[in-house]
């Protein structure tokens, strides 16, 4: 039996639930000021970015996550000019935002310049030229500070942040105080969307994020899609005080993608309908959770 020169990477979704990936090699590993950063080469998903032990994106299917995160909000707004991306280290969220001809300025605020540097060096397939685009302004800093100190207004705010890990840098950006401030900087016509962890692996975390956003915004909806490299159904929460995301029709999505000549691999009207069609048992559970995440009592990932 030839010696095996590869290994299993075990990723814990909760303390009692994990999934595994066969990795050929670790391409790069670094402990930044904020998190453990790994770029690895996997057999089935190509290059994978892992932060604090959680898969963030993979070469094979990152387009699913980033298109699902960005396009519903951009199309719901209709003509976004100024877009704010919170987190988004790999640059793929920016890549999707810049596909819209109406976008005049896209500001990305990531706390960890090492993630951005490493992504530009090892994950160029995600951010080819994005950071050189004249419409992009890259800010290295805590998105919490940025949101509370900015004097500007934004048409769309996209929270592409790490999960709310108790020891991680992102958990305060899943609180009602934070969402209240986001509502102020997007006003009545703006749209907010956030990644919201997995409705299947961490249902309570997902449901509390949804409930917390709903505490602030008049119109709030969750939507889900299976992401193979996460080995999980992944959840997103979209909200606005002026536009109801549940009213977004698939025909309108197709018309807007066509009108703007936007090329996607995953997202179109059919995919939109699928994402917003959540099974009964999940809807009933999510709607049953009445807990709001606050700075004093934040929601965390199960530890
Ligand atoms: N695709 C991932 C997912 O599935 O959720 C998230 C993408 S991205 C890698 C997450 C980014 O959030 C990281 O680059 C991390 O540095 C950034 N981040 C975490 N906490 C932050 C904070 N307080 N302010 C700004 N960026 C933060």
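^ Assign residues to that structure.
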């Amino acid at each position: 039996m030839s010696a095996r020169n590869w290994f299993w990477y075990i990723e814990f979704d909760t303390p009692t639930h994990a999934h595994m990936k066969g990795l050929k090699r670790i391409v790069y590993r670094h402990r930044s000021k904020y998190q453990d950063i790994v770029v690895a080469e996997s057999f089935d998903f190509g290059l994978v970015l892992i932060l604090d032990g959680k898969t963030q994106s993979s070469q094979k299917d990152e387009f699913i996550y980033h298109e699902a995160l960005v396009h519903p909000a951009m199309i719901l707004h209709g003509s976004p000019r100024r877009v704010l991306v919170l987190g988004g280290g790999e640059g793929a969220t920016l890549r999707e935002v810049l596909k819209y001809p109406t976008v005049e300025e896209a500001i990305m605020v990531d706390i960890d310049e090492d993630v951005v540097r490493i992504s530009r060096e090892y994950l160029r397939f995600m951010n080819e030229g994005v950071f050189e685009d004249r419409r992009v302004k890259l800010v290295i800093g805590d998105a919490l500070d940025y949101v509370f100190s900015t004097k500007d207004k934004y048409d769309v705010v996209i929270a592409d942040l790490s999960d709310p890990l108790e020891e991680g840098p992102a958990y305060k950006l899943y609180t009602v105080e934070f969402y209240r401030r986001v509502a102020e900087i997007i006003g009545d016509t703006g749209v907010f969307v956030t990644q919201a962890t997995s409705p299947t692996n961490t249902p309570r975390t997902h449901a509390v994020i949804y409930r917390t956003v709903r505490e602030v915004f008049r119109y709030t909806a969750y939507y889900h899609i299976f992401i193979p490299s996460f080995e999980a159904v992944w959840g997103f929460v979209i909200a606005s005080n002026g536009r109801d995301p549940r009213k977004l029709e698939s025909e309108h999505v197709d018309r807007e993608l066509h009108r703007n000549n936007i090329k996607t691999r995953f997202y179109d009207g059919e995919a939109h309908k699928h994402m917003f069609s959540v099974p009964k048992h999940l809807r009933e559970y999510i709607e049953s959770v009445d807990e709001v995440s606050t700075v004093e009592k934040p929601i965390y990932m199960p530890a």
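The domain at 62-288 is CATH 3.40.50.150 (Rossmann fold).
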